[in-house]
């Protein structure tokens, strides 16, 4: 925190503005720009005033810190004064004593004012006494003041003081613009308020900006600052600026930055902090500290919040207690029924709570707390017995009055008042209501609450109308719907424990095959196979039954996944025949998809016909999960064949259908969205791809790869926020170790970012680490390494080329070895895949293999335009960006072989795509190649080194590129080593480089070196 006042001048050699946070300002760009506009107005010679309003903790001080720092950088003198809460008996003029402390310490700043006896007490920080001299005499000691319609009259002594303070400000402003900041004027004493009124009314054409901040939530109806504010905003040049709560995205950025600096915190915990803070930066910081140290609600924050509550009357406090227990929003009728107050007392208490900004009235007429944390603090302050009593009274009211509340509310209050049977029944009712309106996340929450109470309610089965196993299966199905497969696995295992080995075989079989379906979603194929085999062993094949049919359909899929193809074929044929015979359309559709996916290389027309029939049957059966599986495969088949437009048609249809059914984050809908985002990216619709990836900020962790998909665009465009999203995804991977898609998406983007930032070793390390994890989780499909290796080879090739240019044989050999390691990993993955699946790689995998071969040649120092032409053609199936990147490298290879005409053509095509996509890193690279090669490409102006460097600097840069030292440069150019050093420093500054090697790289990229 800043203490004392601040005085800054242009001639200061250090930053005079103490900062409580050196990190960039978050989420206040518009407000800061507005305040800087007032500073510009003052600099032009017109007095300007801003009344900065905002709740406690919303960020007023942080914004003012930034303003004062910016003002100091502009050469504006800054004075800061603080008001302090001293109750009704404040010290007169305290903020102005604070404000003018630097002037008192250095009389040379304002010599005329320093000699003014009227200001002596103010400078000394003593109670002000007024000399017995005429007011005119006092005014002569200060600069002449232009007159506004200043408030008349104050008693003569105060007029002398006010005029003297105005004169002091004018004297300071006569040397340059002046910024005056008064913080927390809601605590200002009456004399200070009067002086502020006088100054804003008196000053008009002086280069002075006045910013006074106050807490809006402290201004009750009778607060003495209210009439002053109403008066001040009517003055010319004075306006009110209100700081609203920060958007969640900005609070999230703040919390993640602080969490990264202070310690590890899960993404879910960060999102909880963001939600609870409700846009208040101070609350977010306190909650973050609590999250890092295990505190529910920090004592410091609780004390701050309760201080305002404890100032209210007993009746108002009772209303707040009832409202806190009732929930975030509460109806008047409930408070009246439960609060125990007469009608008159209730009206008065509610009015008091509203007028002091503790409660606000919603549009629907209900009362709610101004901030959710205020409610939390009131709840935390309740005695246990009082809380239970209020919950019981509210539960009784809700049960007694029809329509007074929802089943979820009744369940909550019954549970908190220890009415467990009532809570159990209400939870089941709430779950049914949530399921009826398509809210599976809330349905899961209520079902789990009921399960937790099962053993504590003697007649649970009677109340539920079903057994515990049936409730566990229902809850597990809901968990799968919301994208929580790990939770579904745990619930199904609990169901098996409840059943025991002697339970009905068909029921046990159903649980086993359902558990298998859930386990495969968490990458446990071996476990899923064991569970489906157990289901098959419990139910005979004859006579055909629904349970056996589904067990066989599930076992076929699991057997294929672990390579037991003969066993899988037998189970599939049995399931298909039984489904046909019994009319089980859902099972038939499911096994049809399994067979299609198990037979790669089948005739495309037959595959499409089979999937079309499966979709019709799945729809007819009403089995949503199977329908989503069919839609996913209808999109996957054309995607793998390179028909991106057709794939997008199915992904749009599938994601829309999933949204309509309320299952958009179950497994297949999430994969459909992943495919949709990826296909849009490939097709060159980067705005659409990013929008779909970010359609919901909060997604289930098992669907985190969908949001991570947005990295493809962010990295491709050089967006600085890519690093933050990579860190977010990286934080999830340890908890979701089997989530290979998340790992591959994150690693691929991290490698790409490292490539553009010139970090070859990091790119290699990330690629190989991800490849090791891929081999550990998947036995025979490691093709994901093709993209990782192809992308990581790019900076390795650059590093190898630079080492050759510098004649550094050791570094050249090192990078060639690293490149060979990546190429070998890619070739090995292809060999393993073909050994299992034959020649059935998709077009994207084939394209990345072509890229790997081309990049491998570049690492070895070979231009190999034929390999790059093959990569261009391979990506021509519809991957717009990677085709353009391959064209860039093809142009580079053609230029190396002397084919300038074709090089210019390929570079131009790559440049057009980079511009259209907003792919800034690729555009910069292509333009650098065009300029270095002096290629004739429309729209790209050749870089002339003379426009950047002096002739001597150009000579020095040429020698720098050859690896010369300052002494060698001096000797070759017949200048001193010191002069050579000065030229090198100038070159680094002009290029924005931190060192000689980086300067050469930047110059080469910009085409300043041939």
UniProtKB/TrEMBL annotation:
Coiled coil: none annotated. GO terms for cellular component: cytoplasm. SUPFAM superfamilies: C-terminal effector domain of the bipartite response regulators, P-loop containing nucleoside triphosphate hydrolases. CDD domains: LuxR_C_like. Keywords: ATP-binding, Nucleotide-binding. Residues 942-1007 form the HTH luxR-type domain. GO terms for molecular function: adenylate cyclase activity; ATP binding; DNA binding. Pfam families: AAA_16, GerE. This is Regulatory protein, luxR family.
